[in-house]
Amino acid sequence: MNDDPVIILAIESSCDDTAASVISDGRILSNIVASQAIHAKYGGIVPEVASRMHQENINVVIEAALREAGIGLSQLNAIACTAGPGLLGSLTVGLSFAKAMALSLDIPFISVNHMRAHVLSHFIDDPKPSFPFLCLTVSGGHTQIVLVKSFNDMTILGQTLDDAAGEAFDKSGKILGLAYPAGPEINRLAALGKPVYSFPIPQIDGLDFSFSGLKTAILYFIRDEVKKDPDFIKKHLRDICASIQHTIVEILTRKILAAAKKYGIKEIGIAGGVAANSGLRSRLKELAAENKWNLYFPAMQYCTDNAGMIAIAGYYQYLTGEFSELDTAPFVRGME
Ligand code: KG4
Ligand code: ZN
Fold this sequence. Notes:
Blueprint: E1 7-12, E2 17-24, E3 27-35, H1 47-69, E4 78-84, H2 88-105, E5 109-113, H3 114-120, E6 133-138, E7 143-150, E8 153-159, H4 165-175, H5 183-190, H6 212-228, H7 232-263, E9 267-271, H8 278-291, E10 294-296, H9 308-319
Parallel strand pairs: 1-4, 4-5, 6-9, 9-10
Antiparallel strand pairs: 1-2, 2-3, 6-7, 7-8
The protein binds 5'-O-[(R)-(carboxyoxy)(hydroxy)phosphoryl]adenosine and zinc ion.
Protein backbone atom coordinates (compact mmCIF):
# COMPACT_ATOMS: atom_id res chain seq x y z
CA MET A 1 0.00 0.00 0.00
CA ASN A 2 1.27 3.43 -0.97
CA ASP A 3 1.34 5.88 1.97
CA ASP A 4 2.43 8.88 -0.09
CA PRO A 5 0.08 11.84 0.30
CA VAL A 6 -2.27 12.75 -2.55
CA ILE A 7 -1.06 16.12 -3.81
CA ILE A 8 -3.20 18.16 -6.20
CA LEU A 9 -2.68 21.52 -7.88
CA ALA A 10 -5.98 23.37 -8.35
CA ILE A 11 -6.67 26.27 -10.69
CA GLU A 12 -9.63 28.69 -10.70
CA SER A 13 -10.24 31.34 -13.39
CA SER A 14 -14.02 31.39 -13.81
CA CYS A 15 -14.57 35.11 -13.31
CA ASP A 16 -12.12 37.91 -12.48
CA ASP A 17 -9.79 36.24 -9.97
CA THR A 18 -6.85 34.11 -11.09
CA ALA A 19 -6.23 31.56 -8.34
CA ALA A 20 -4.14 28.47 -7.64
CA SER A 21 -3.88 26.21 -4.61
CA VAL A 22 -1.97 23.09 -3.60
CA ILE A 23 -3.63 20.50 -1.37
CA SER A 24 -2.03 17.48 0.29
CA ASP A 25 -4.34 14.75 1.63
CA GLY A 26 -7.15 17.29 2.04
CA ARG A 27 -4.97 19.91 3.77
CA ILE A 28 -4.44 23.22 1.96
CA LEU A 29 -0.73 24.05 1.59
CA SER A 30 -1.15 27.26 -0.39
CA ASN A 31 -4.02 29.44 -1.63
CA ILE A 32 -2.97 32.25 -3.96
CA VAL A 33 -5.37 34.75 -5.56
CA ALA A 34 -4.57 37.55 -8.00
CA SER A 35 -7.58 39.88 -8.07
CA GLN A 36 -8.21 42.10 -11.06
CA ALA A 37 -8.71 45.62 -9.69
CA ILE A 38 -8.89 46.91 -13.28
CA HIS A 39 -12.65 46.20 -13.48
CA ALA A 40 -13.46 48.84 -10.83
CA LYS A 41 -12.89 51.60 -13.35
CA TYR A 42 -15.54 50.09 -15.65
CA GLY A 43 -18.06 49.64 -12.80
CA GLY A 44 -18.27 45.89 -13.42
CA ILE A 45 -16.44 42.93 -14.93
CA VAL A 46 -15.47 43.23 -18.60
CA PRO A 47 -15.16 39.60 -19.80
CA GLU A 48 -12.61 40.28 -22.54
CA VAL A 49 -10.38 42.20 -20.13
CA ALA A 50 -10.78 39.43 -17.52
CA SER A 51 -9.52 36.69 -19.83
CA ARG A 52 -6.53 38.77 -20.94
CA MET A 53 -5.63 39.42 -17.30
CA HIS A 54 -5.90 35.69 -16.54
CA GLN A 55 -3.39 35.04 -19.30
CA GLU A 56 -0.99 37.55 -17.77
CA ASN A 57 -1.42 36.24 -14.21
CA ILE A 58 -1.77 32.51 -14.49
CA ASN A 59 1.90 31.51 -14.69
CA VAL A 60 2.92 33.67 -11.77
CA VAL A 61 -0.02 32.54 -9.63
CA ILE A 62 0.63 28.83 -10.22
CA GLU A 63 4.36 29.24 -9.56
CA ALA A 64 3.59 31.10 -6.33
CA ALA A 65 1.17 28.37 -5.21
CA LEU A 66 3.74 25.62 -5.83
CA ARG A 67 6.55 27.62 -4.21
CA GLU A 68 4.54 28.47 -1.09
CA ALA A 69 3.51 24.82 -0.76
CA GLY A 70 7.11 23.67 -1.26
CA ILE A 71 5.91 21.24 -3.92
CA GLY A 72 7.63 20.40 -7.21
CA LEU A 73 5.83 19.41 -10.40
CA SER A 74 7.02 15.80 -10.08
CA GLN A 75 5.19 15.46 -6.74
CA LEU A 76 1.76 16.29 -8.18
CA ASN A 77 -0.79 13.47 -8.46
CA ALA A 78 -3.44 15.41 -10.38
CA ILE A 79 -4.44 18.83 -11.72
CA ALA A 80 -7.91 20.10 -10.84
CA CYS A 81 -9.52 23.09 -12.53
CA THR A 82 -12.87 24.88 -12.70
CA ALA A 83 -14.67 24.05 -15.96
CA GLY A 84 -17.74 26.17 -15.16
CA PRO A 85 -20.06 27.83 -14.53
CA GLY A 86 -18.40 31.12 -15.43
CA LEU A 87 -17.23 33.36 -18.24
CA LEU A 88 -16.17 31.27 -21.23
CA GLY A 89 -13.06 33.26 -22.07
CA SER A 90 -11.90 33.31 -18.45
CA LEU A 91 -12.57 29.60 -17.95
CA THR A 92 -10.70 28.70 -21.13
CA VAL A 93 -7.46 30.22 -19.82
CA GLY A 94 -7.36 28.11 -16.64
CA LEU A 95 -8.76 25.01 -18.30
CA SER A 96 -6.26 25.01 -21.17
CA PHE A 97 -3.40 25.52 -18.74
CA ALA A 98 -4.62 22.74 -16.44
CA LYS A 99 -5.15 20.26 -19.27
CA ALA A 100 -1.74 21.03 -20.77
CA MET A 101 -0.09 20.48 -17.37
CA ALA A 102 -1.91 17.19 -16.80
CA LEU A 103 -0.97 16.00 -20.28
CA SER A 104 2.69 16.94 -20.01
CA LEU A 105 3.06 15.50 -16.48
CA ASP A 106 1.03 12.42 -17.46
CA ILE A 107 -1.28 12.72 -14.42
CA PRO A 108 -5.10 12.83 -14.21
CA PHE A 109 -7.06 15.96 -14.98
CA ILE A 110 -10.06 16.70 -12.73
CA SER A 111 -12.76 19.07 -13.95
CA VAL A 112 -14.46 20.82 -11.02
CA ASN A 113 -17.83 22.58 -10.90
CA HIS A 114 -17.39 26.03 -9.35
CA MET A 115 -20.76 25.96 -7.53
CA ARG A 116 -20.12 22.53 -6.01
CA ALA A 117 -16.71 23.77 -4.95
CA HIS A 118 -18.28 26.76 -3.12
CA VAL A 119 -20.36 24.21 -1.18
CA LEU A 120 -17.36 21.99 -0.47
CA SER A 121 -15.36 24.95 0.88
CA HIS A 122 -17.03 23.92 4.16
CA PHE A 123 -14.74 20.87 4.26
CA ILE A 124 -11.45 22.75 4.26
CA ASP A 125 -11.34 23.66 7.97
CA ASP A 126 -13.09 22.56 11.15
CA PRO A 127 -15.87 22.60 12.24
CA LYS A 128 -17.36 20.84 9.24
CA PRO A 129 -21.10 20.36 8.67
CA SER A 130 -22.53 16.87 8.74
CA PHE A 131 -24.72 15.49 5.96
CA PRO A 132 -27.35 16.35 5.02
CA PHE A 133 -26.89 20.11 5.25
CA LEU A 134 -28.24 23.16 3.47
CA CYS A 135 -25.80 25.53 1.82
CA LEU A 136 -26.72 29.11 0.97
CA THR A 137 -24.20 30.14 -1.70
CA VAL A 138 -24.25 33.91 -2.13
CA SER A 139 -21.79 35.84 -4.27
CA GLY A 140 -21.56 38.32 -7.11
CA GLY A 141 -22.55 35.67 -9.62
CA HIS A 142 -24.61 33.20 -7.61
CA THR A 143 -27.49 32.83 -5.19
CA GLN A 144 -28.51 29.25 -4.46
CA ILE A 145 -29.87 27.07 -1.71
CA VAL A 146 -28.39 23.61 -2.13
CA LEU A 147 -29.36 20.41 -0.33
CA VAL A 148 -26.07 18.59 0.24
CA LYS A 149 -26.49 14.88 0.95
CA SER A 150 -22.86 13.86 0.35
CA PHE A 151 -19.70 15.13 -1.34
CA ASN A 152 -21.17 14.40 -4.73
CA ASP A 153 -24.92 14.38 -4.16
CA MET A 154 -26.22 17.95 -4.29
CA THR A 155 -29.62 19.28 -5.32
CA ILE A 156 -30.43 22.93 -5.99
CA LEU A 157 -33.60 23.72 -4.03
CA GLY A 158 -33.82 27.34 -5.09
CA GLN A 159 -31.87 29.97 -6.95
CA THR A 160 -32.12 33.51 -8.19
CA LEU A 161 -34.38 34.21 -11.13
CA ASP A 162 -32.43 37.35 -12.05
CA ASP A 163 -29.63 39.17 -10.19
CA ALA A 164 -27.40 37.46 -7.64
CA ALA A 165 -27.32 38.78 -4.05
CA GLY A 166 -23.86 40.30 -4.52
CA GLU A 167 -25.04 41.91 -7.75
CA ALA A 168 -27.95 43.44 -5.82
CA PHE A 169 -25.42 45.05 -3.47
CA ASP A 170 -23.19 46.14 -6.33
CA LYS A 171 -25.99 47.57 -8.52
CA SER A 172 -27.59 49.38 -5.56
CA GLY A 173 -24.19 50.84 -4.76
CA LYS A 174 -23.82 52.03 -8.32
CA ILE A 175 -27.12 53.94 -8.03
CA LEU A 176 -25.68 55.61 -4.92
CA GLY A 177 -22.42 56.44 -6.69
CA LEU A 178 -20.31 53.91 -4.75
CA ALA A 179 -17.34 52.19 -6.39
CA TYR A 180 -17.57 48.60 -7.70
CA PRO A 181 -17.86 46.17 -5.99
CA ALA A 182 -20.07 48.07 -3.56
CA GLY A 183 -20.98 45.19 -1.20
CA PRO A 184 -18.23 45.79 1.38
CA GLU A 185 -18.80 49.58 1.39
CA ILE A 186 -22.59 49.21 1.80
CA ASN A 187 -21.85 46.82 4.67
CA ARG A 188 -19.52 49.35 6.31
CA LEU A 189 -21.97 52.27 5.94
CA ALA A 190 -24.97 50.14 6.96
CA ALA A 191 -23.31 49.44 10.30
CA LEU A 192 -23.41 53.21 10.96
CA GLY A 193 -27.06 53.71 9.96
CA LYS A 194 -30.59 52.43 10.57
CA PRO A 195 -32.94 50.65 8.14
CA VAL A 196 -35.51 53.46 8.17
CA TYR A 197 -36.55 53.18 4.49
CA SER A 198 -38.54 50.13 3.48
CA PHE A 199 -38.22 48.40 0.14
CA PRO A 200 -40.58 45.63 -0.97
CA ILE A 201 -39.71 41.97 -0.34
CA PRO A 202 -40.60 40.07 -3.53
CA GLN A 203 -43.15 37.30 -3.15
CA ILE A 204 -41.56 34.50 -5.16
CA ASP A 205 -42.93 30.96 -4.97
CA GLY A 206 -40.91 28.19 -3.39
CA LEU A 207 -37.25 28.69 -2.56
CA ASP A 208 -36.26 30.86 -5.52
CA PHE A 209 -35.02 34.43 -5.16
CA SER A 210 -35.43 37.65 -7.10
CA PHE A 211 -33.44 40.85 -6.66
CA SER A 212 -34.16 42.87 -9.78
CA GLY A 213 -37.30 44.46 -8.28
CA LEU A 214 -35.26 45.78 -5.38
CA LYS A 215 -32.82 47.46 -7.74
CA THR A 216 -35.72 49.18 -9.56
CA ALA A 217 -37.39 50.19 -6.27
CA ILE A 218 -34.13 51.78 -5.08
CA LEU A 219 -33.64 53.53 -8.40
CA TYR A 220 -37.13 55.15 -8.29
CA PHE A 221 -36.87 55.93 -4.57
CA ILE A 222 -33.53 57.71 -5.01
CA ARG A 223 -34.73 59.51 -8.15
CA ASP A 224 -37.82 60.86 -6.34
CA GLU A 225 -35.96 61.87 -3.19
CA VAL A 226 -33.14 63.56 -5.11
CA LYS A 227 -35.77 65.58 -7.01
CA LYS A 228 -36.97 66.95 -3.65
CA ASP A 229 -33.48 67.37 -2.17
CA PRO A 230 -30.39 67.12 -4.42
CA ASP A 231 -28.26 66.28 -1.35
CA PHE A 232 -30.51 63.41 -0.24
CA ILE A 233 -27.95 60.66 -0.91
CA LYS A 234 -25.13 62.48 0.84
CA LYS A 235 -27.26 63.33 3.88
CA HIS A 236 -28.80 59.89 4.33
CA LEU A 237 -26.23 57.48 2.84
CA ARG A 238 -25.82 55.42 6.01
CA ASP A 239 -29.55 54.88 6.49
CA ILE A 240 -30.05 54.13 2.79
CA CYS A 241 -27.28 51.50 2.95
CA ALA A 242 -28.72 50.03 6.15
CA SER A 243 -32.14 49.80 4.47
CA ILE A 244 -30.75 48.14 1.32
CA GLN A 245 -28.73 45.65 3.35
CA HIS A 246 -31.68 44.91 5.62
CA THR A 247 -33.88 44.12 2.58
CA ILE A 248 -31.30 41.84 0.92
CA VAL A 249 -30.70 40.03 4.21
CA GLU A 250 -34.47 39.55 4.69
CA ILE A 251 -34.87 38.15 1.16
CA LEU A 252 -32.04 35.66 1.78
CA THR A 253 -32.86 34.62 5.31
CA ARG A 254 -36.60 34.13 4.77
CA LYS A 255 -35.81 31.55 2.10
CA ILE A 256 -33.14 29.69 4.04
CA LEU A 257 -35.52 29.58 7.02
CA ALA A 258 -38.27 28.19 4.77
CA ALA A 259 -35.86 25.59 3.33
CA ALA A 260 -34.66 24.52 6.79
CA LYS A 261 -38.26 24.07 7.95
CA LYS A 262 -39.40 22.27 4.81
CA TYR A 263 -36.54 19.75 4.89
CA GLY A 264 -36.22 19.53 8.68
CA ILE A 265 -32.48 20.33 8.50
CA LYS A 266 -30.56 22.17 11.20
CA GLU A 267 -27.08 22.08 9.64
CA ILE A 268 -26.75 25.33 7.68
CA GLY A 269 -23.69 26.49 5.74
CA ILE A 270 -23.12 29.89 4.11
CA ALA A 271 -20.60 30.29 1.27
CA GLY A 272 -19.62 32.94 -1.30
CA GLY A 273 -18.42 36.55 -1.03
CA VAL A 274 -21.67 37.89 0.47
CA ALA A 275 -21.12 35.55 3.46
CA ALA A 276 -18.77 38.33 4.62
CA ASN A 277 -21.75 40.62 5.19
CA SER A 278 -22.07 41.36 8.89
CA GLY A 279 -25.82 42.05 8.68
CA LEU A 280 -26.39 38.63 7.08
CA ARG A 281 -24.18 36.96 9.67
CA SER A 282 -25.91 38.51 12.65
CA ARG A 283 -29.43 37.77 11.33
CA LEU A 284 -28.40 34.17 10.65
CA LYS A 285 -26.99 33.88 14.16
CA GLU A 286 -30.33 35.06 15.57
CA LEU A 287 -32.19 32.52 13.46
CA ALA A 288 -29.72 29.80 14.47
CA ALA A 289 -30.37 30.51 18.14
CA GLU A 290 -34.16 30.52 17.62
CA ASN A 291 -34.20 27.37 15.50
CA LYS A 292 -31.31 25.46 17.10
CA TRP A 293 -29.28 25.41 13.88
CA ASN A 294 -25.58 24.69 13.66
CA LEU A 295 -24.19 27.46 11.42
CA TYR A 296 -21.04 27.12 9.32
CA PHE A 297 -19.05 29.86 7.59
CA PRO A 298 -15.85 28.91 5.76
CA ALA A 299 -12.87 31.21 6.47
CA MET A 300 -13.18 34.39 4.39
CA GLN A 301 -10.39 33.45 1.98
CA TYR A 302 -12.43 30.36 1.07
CA CYS A 303 -15.72 32.30 0.69
CA THR A 304 -14.70 34.70 -2.06
CA ASP A 305 -13.59 33.04 -5.30
CA ASN A 306 -10.48 30.98 -4.60
CA ALA A 307 -8.68 27.83 -5.69
CA GLY A 308 -8.63 26.25 -2.21
CA MET A 309 -12.27 25.27 -2.72
CA ILE A 310 -11.40 23.82 -6.15
CA ALA A 311 -8.60 21.88 -4.48
CA ILE A 312 -10.85 20.33 -1.82
CA ALA A 313 -13.48 19.45 -4.44
CA GLY A 314 -10.73 17.99 -6.65
CA TYR A 315 -9.40 15.98 -3.72
CA TYR A 316 -12.74 14.28 -3.06
CA GLN A 317 -13.17 13.61 -6.78
CA TYR A 318 -9.66 12.10 -6.82
CA LEU A 319 -10.58 9.74 -3.97
CA THR A 320 -13.57 8.42 -5.93
CA GLY A 321 -11.65 8.29 -9.23
CA GLU A 322 -13.78 11.00 -10.82
CA PHE A 323 -11.29 12.03 -13.51
CA SER A 324 -12.08 13.97 -16.67
CA GLU A 325 -11.19 13.79 -20.32
CA LEU A 326 -8.78 16.28 -21.85
CA ASP A 327 -11.49 17.45 -24.25
CA THR A 328 -13.65 18.72 -21.34
CA ALA A 329 -15.22 21.99 -22.48
CA PRO A 330 -15.88 25.07 -20.35
CA PHE A 331 -19.53 25.86 -19.61
CA VAL A 332 -21.47 28.99 -18.72
CA ARG A 333 -24.07 27.60 -16.31
CA GLY A 334 -25.12 24.44 -14.52
CA MET A 335 -24.33 22.32 -11.50
CA GLU A 336 -22.94 19.28 -13.36
O1 KG4 B 1 -17.56 35.21 -4.18
P1 KG4 B 1 -17.11 36.51 -4.74
O2 KG4 B 1 -15.75 37.03 -4.33
O3 KG4 B 1 -17.06 36.49 -6.30
C1 KG4 B 1 -18.07 36.01 -7.09
O4 KG4 B 1 -18.09 34.81 -7.39
O5 KG4 B 1 -18.92 36.86 -7.45
O6 KG4 B 1 -18.23 37.57 -4.36
C2 KG4 B 1 -18.12 38.92 -4.72
C3 KG4 B 1 -19.41 39.61 -4.30
C4 KG4 B 1 -19.49 41.05 -4.78
O7 KG4 B 1 -20.78 41.24 -5.33
C5 KG4 B 1 -19.32 41.85 -3.50
O8 KG4 B 1 -19.97 43.09 -3.52
C6 KG4 B 1 -19.92 40.93 -2.48
O9 KG4 B 1 -19.52 39.63 -2.87
N1 KG4 B 1 -19.43 41.19 -1.13
C7 KG4 B 1 -20.22 41.68 -0.14
C8 KG4 B 1 -19.38 41.84 0.99
N2 KG4 B 1 -18.12 41.42 0.64
C9 KG4 B 1 -18.18 41.03 -0.65
N3 KG4 B 1 -21.51 42.00 -0.13
C10 KG4 B 1 -22.02 42.47 1.02
N4 KG4 B 1 -21.29 42.65 2.13
C11 KG4 B 1 -19.98 42.34 2.18
N5 KG4 B 1 -19.28 42.52 3.30
ZN1 ZN C 1 -17.98 32.01 -7.09
